[in-house]
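Technical note accompanying the year-one report. For the benefit of new consortium partners, we illustrate the data format agreed upon in the data management plan: each record pairs a sequence with a structure-token string. No post-processing was applied to the example shown here.
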Amino acid sequence: MHTVIFDLDGTLAETSGDLIAAANTCFRGLGYGDLLDPQSDASTAYHGARAMLALGFERLNVSDAAAQIDAQFPVLLAAYAENIDVYTRLYDGVTEAVEALKRDGYAVGICTNKPAGLAETLLQRLGVRGLFDSMVGADTLPVRKPDPAPYRAAVELAGGDVSKSYLVGDTITDRKTAAAAGVPCALVSFGPEGSLVQEMKPEALLAHYRDLGRVTRELIGAPQ
């Protein structure tokens, strides 16, 4: 079955505001105040919780950054779980575009480096979990993206065929994942990286979800 797999953060939804807020909860708890800016540090949010903590502790020039990151990581996850959808929103046209793919006979799934429990909660809160045939998170398997195994699992759980699939993402991690899996990659150009994603040389750029059907047909063809 022809299958489209999506990353979540920065691809289907703008989640950086809630992620940055969770990191700042950690820094405030340590008495440092808000060290990260929701706008200028948005791209760091999409590289994960540890990347956000590392950036904050780098700005403080602390000597034990690694230990501090380890200590604050569960604090950040708890803060994020409590306020997971305060600022988060789906990108314009996501729901309609995914529904159109399903009507046309494609299977659709999600492969994210967000912990599976948090991803499930967020998708439910956004009202779109039922649209997707599979959901593989960072802890679903022993490995995570850019290892290709989670991507392949997302395709197979959706009932699809890896050879007739591709990945929609927003970062170099997604680009590397697709390359490792031997499938095409479309990167969104409306995320925090903007047009810079073209430097990653994806097989396609997605400027708006209204173009998803066309891009999908160009990359993997149409179901028979």
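Partners are asked to follow this layout when depositing records. The longest helix spans residues 65-82.
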